[in-house]
Amino acid sequence: MNNHRLMSNNLLLKFLQGFFLLCMRSSLESATTFSSGNESDFLALLDFKSRIVQDPLQIMSSWNNSIHYCNWVGIICNKSNQKVVVLNLEERQLTGTLSPSIGNLTFLTGINLQNNSFHGEIPHEVGNLLHLQDLNLTNNYFGGRIPYNLSHCTELREIRVSYNILIGQIPDQLKSLRKLVFLRLGRNNLTGRIPTWLGNFSALHTVSLALNNFQGSIPNELGHLSNLRMLQLYGNSLSGSIPASLSNASRLQVLDFYGNGLSGTLPENLGSLQNLIRLNFEVNRLGSWKAGDLSFITSLSNCTALKVLGLAQNQFGGEFPSSLANFSTQMKILTLGSNAMHGSIPVEIGNLVNLTLLGLENNHLSGSLPDAMGMLRKLEGLELNGNKFSGLIPSSLGNLTALTSLSMEENEFEGYIPTSLGKCQNLLKLSLNDNKLNGTIPKEVIGLSSLSIYLNMSNNSLTGSLPIEVGKLINLMEFDLSENKLSGELPTSLGSCTSLQHLYLQGNLLEGEIPQSLEHLRGLDDIDLSRNTLSGKLPKFLSKFLAVKHLNLSYNDFEGEIPQEGIFKNATGVSLIGNKKLCGGVQTLHLPTCTDSRPHSSRKFLALKVVMPVICAVIFVICLCCSVVALYKIKRTRKGASKSTFSTDDWKSGVSYSELAKSTNGFSKDNLIGMGSFGSVYKGTLSVDGAIVAVKVLNLEQKGASKSFIDECEALRCIRHRNLLKIISACSSVDHQGNEFKALVFEFMPNGSLDDWVHPINNDQHYESRKLRFIQRLNVAIDVAFALEYLHHHCQPPIVHCDIKPSNVLLDKDMVAHVGDFGLAMFLFEELSNPTKNPTLTVGLKGSIGYIPPEYGMGGQPSTLGDVYSYGILLLEMFIGKRPTNEAFKDCLTICQFAAMSLPEHIMDIVDPFLLSDQEENVDLDRCTLEECLVSVMQIGVSCSITPPNERMPINVVVKKLHAVKNLYDRSKNRNRRETAGRTEHLSLISNHK
Ligand SMILES: *[C@@H]1O[C@H](CO)[C@@H](O)[C@H](O)[C@H]1NC(C)=O
Ligand SMILES: *[C@@H]1O[C@H](CO)[C@@H](O)[C@H](O)[C@H]1NC(C)=O
Asked: Taking the first listed entry, what is the main subcellular location of this protein, grouped into a coarse class (predicted)?
């Protein structure tokens, strides 16, 4: 028995020993593999890290010795041998060069550095990565050539290097990369020809070479690519014709050759590409100005998925292709403008019920418009201008209620303007000029308050007076009714059109005085009222319009003395000839001096009456200033240097480069706190008074930065509001190397940007504390709305911010929000006043992706309602906790639609989950009230960011509605507090009794 036990004890001992040794061995083994075998990966990563010069999100802080490198942010290792297989640092705001030792990570299969600021060349050591499948460097500043020894990476499936500054040709050596599926080289400075060997890459799915300088013709060989879905070659200098062989690449969905020099005719059998979705050949030299040019169109009726056909700005001649009517009803965009087509529009056009843009402008089309056009109810843009269309404007056009742009100018339309157009309540631009229209202007049409870019009815034979409904055009910038037969007086209501920059009423029969109400139109820069019979004195306010550059009042019946200030100082800006009763003014106007009819004494008396109060006022102001200065000095001598040395007005005096360099430790990267739209922001301490400031240094190499500096100075000079970021000073000078240097100095916001709070980074030290409670979010939302309300409704002229997004909302130490970054801001009267007459599919955008209102993409000009859109997105983002660019909103669904779909029953399913789990908040707020509040907030967000601009909720209404939510919250909180307090009181009573 004992023996037995002994034996079993021995066995146990042996077993334990064995186990112990095993453990030892395996731990030793892992230590050796780490220090020898994989040391190379470890060292290579350290070297990678050492080339990162800016890392505001502190991603690289996890890359240290205390953590195994397989657990560093962005690293994925092979489990069995601990080798790095994926390096993924997508969108981490990193700046630096890419270390050549990347080539030592020999097991790498994927590199993803997209959306950072890497510069320098792509190291040719990447060619050592024989397992590499996926190279993604999109949207950085990589320069130099594409390394030719990438040709060794024969496993490559994806090369994505779009949006860099690469030069040179596509190296011929790359013909070895036969497994390539995606080749994206768009928007670089690449040159040379498109290599013919691409035709051997049978797996190719996407080829984008757009926006480079490629030359020569499109190789026939691309027709061999039976897997090709997308071929984007737009924005190059390609020539020749389009190879017929392309119709063999039977899986093609997208062909975009916009903006090249392609000529010849299009292959007849394009229609055999059954999967085509988008065909864009705009802006080339295709066609021969002759009949038959468009015969390929017939075959396209087989393409049942076709949504976009762009043929505008080519040389297509011949009859308007009536086979268009047989196209798939999927068609959304059809542009044939600026060609040489003739013929008329067939009735069957009404079949294309999903069209959103129909461009037929600048051709030789004739005949009348079919009533069936009214069936195209989804049309947002209809361009018919510059043709020979005749007959009446069909009243069915009033059914096109989604229209934002209607261009019918330069045709031969006749008869009345249909009142039904008044139903098109999303119109931003309407032009009917240069036709043969007559009758009066319908009040329904002139009262279309959505019109904000232009309304042009000039050069017709319109009669009657200007309807008072004109006063509804409060967003309109350009108004042209010149060269008609309008009569009567100018309505007082015209003074409500405060966004006007251009007012053209010349060549009519208008009479009476210029109404005093027009003094509100201070944004006007071009006024033409000539050739009417307007009378009375020239109103004084005209001389106070600061923006005005041209004022034409000639050939009217004005009388009396001409003012001498403002525009009247400059004889070249005004024209007053043909007004026989005008006198005085500056000498260069060459008008007779005014002979005085009033008795001398009364004039003197009058002068006294006017001058005395002015003198008194001036004296009073001077006294006031003196006492303020005196007080200020006393205060300063008492207190020593006061905390804010820069008063709000002397910021213009500026600070020097040296002072800023000193305050930011020589712009050291330790002081870098962020990157704005046009430069970097540093934290600094001014030596004068120790004030902590944020210094925004403009990157002058970036296009537009200089203009942005001026815009921002200009915008900030004029505005003061609790919720706007305060500028302290500016610096425009040269740095120590003699380079131009521009910087703005702001008050420092210790809590960073709203973006940091809405999207805290998981491994950030602040992660846990950076969670905003419901009421904090609501307060920030109200602050931002306040700031916008001030810009839109209390600044003269109104200011459009143009870049509202969470990273431009900064939080001070008390979590009060301040809107900053006025780099894109503009005064409403300052905007480009030359809206493109031929809108094409590509338009420059203003703002940040995800927050840009859709109308800007359609050529719409910045407007306050555009800011409201961005604000709505910001509001939804704050409470949902997801960016508008989040994957969840891809498939044709915007964050706004996403929220709208969940309203009201499912709102709790989509809000930031933290809002529901916040214990502290739950004490104050019962779930029902929280839900009620969230529904209201989401509703406001949705009504701000709907597509039709004029249906958006104006920001002053937003402010009111958000306040109502806050009241609801406060009431509930007080009720709950009272109840809790009541209960405690009750308890203490009981315990006292005991
Ligand atoms: C990368 O490998 C090369 C060649 O083996 C070696 O010379 C270099 O030091 C390595 N780089 C790093 C950072 O370890
Ligand atoms: C590179 O980006 C593309 C597109 O965003 C993505 O599909 C791919 O997975 C990325 N590659 C890596 C290694 O993350």
From this structure: membrane
**What are the C-alpha distances in Å from 29 to residues 17, 92, 106?**
18, 35, 22
* Domain-located, residue 121: yes
Position 180 scores a pLDDT of 97
Judge whether 553 lies within some domain: no
The closest ligand to the CA of 45 turns out to be 1
Residues 872, 988 share a domain: yes
* 666 part of a folded domain: yes
Atom of ligand 1 lying closest to residue 103 CA? 1
Task: Report yes or no on whether pTM surpasses 0.70.
Answer: no
- List CB contacts of 793: < 8 A, sequence separation 6 or more: 955, 956
**Using alpha carbons only, what angle is made at residue 509 by residues 508 and 511, rounded to the nearest 5 degrees?**
125
Taking CA atoms only, the protein residue closest to ligand 1 atom 13 is 44
CB distance 38 to ligand 1 below 6 Å: no
- Pair 730, 767 in one domain: no
Atom 6, ligand 2: residue with shortest CA distance: 136
Tell me, what's the pLDDT at 691? 81
**Ligand nearest to the CA of residue 159, numbered in listed order:** 2
Regions in the chain scoring below 50 on pLDDT: 1-37, 597-653, 829-845, 980-994
Task: Using the atom order of ligand 1, give the atom closest to the CA of residue 47.
Answer: 13
The C-alpha atoms of residue 832 and residue 819 are separated, in whole angstroms, by: 25
Domain coverage including residue 894: 751-994
Are both 678 and 767 inside the same structural domain? no
Same domain, 717 and 782: no
| H or E segment to which residue 254 belongs | strand 254-256
Three-state SS for 720?
Answer: coil
743 and 880 fall within a common domain: no
To the query of whether residue 803 is one of the catalytic residues in this protein, the response is yes
Two structure tokens written together for 651: 């910021």
- What is the SS3 assignment for 652-718? HHCCCHHHHHHHCCCCCHHHEEEECCCEEEEEEECCCCCCEEEEEEECCCCCCHHHHHHHHHHHHHH
CA distance 383 to 407: 5
Q: How far, in Å, CA of 925 to CA of 441, rounded?
A: 56
pLDDT of residue 708: 62
Considering 163, 182, 207, which residue would you say is the last residue of a domain?
A: 163
Compute φ and ψ for 86, nearest 5 degrees. -135, 135
Tell the burial category of 764 from Cβ atoms under 10 Å away from its Cβ (0-12, 13-18, 19+). middle
Query: Is-contact 581 557, C-beta < 8 A?
Result: yes
CA of 447 to the centre of ligand 1 (A): 73
Domain limit, last residue, from 748, 777, 809: 748
Residues 727 and 827 in one domain: no
C-alpha–C-alpha distance, residues 497 and 205, integer Å = 53
The single residue of 803, 867, 912, 924 carrying the catalytic annotation is 803
Helix %, strand %, coil % of the chain (to 5): 35, 20, 45
- The Å distance, Cα 277 to ligand 2 centre, comes to 24
Total tally of structural domains belonging to the chain: 3
Residue 88 belongs to some domain of the structure: yes
536 phi and psi, to 5 degrees?
85, -175
pLDDT of res. 589: 80
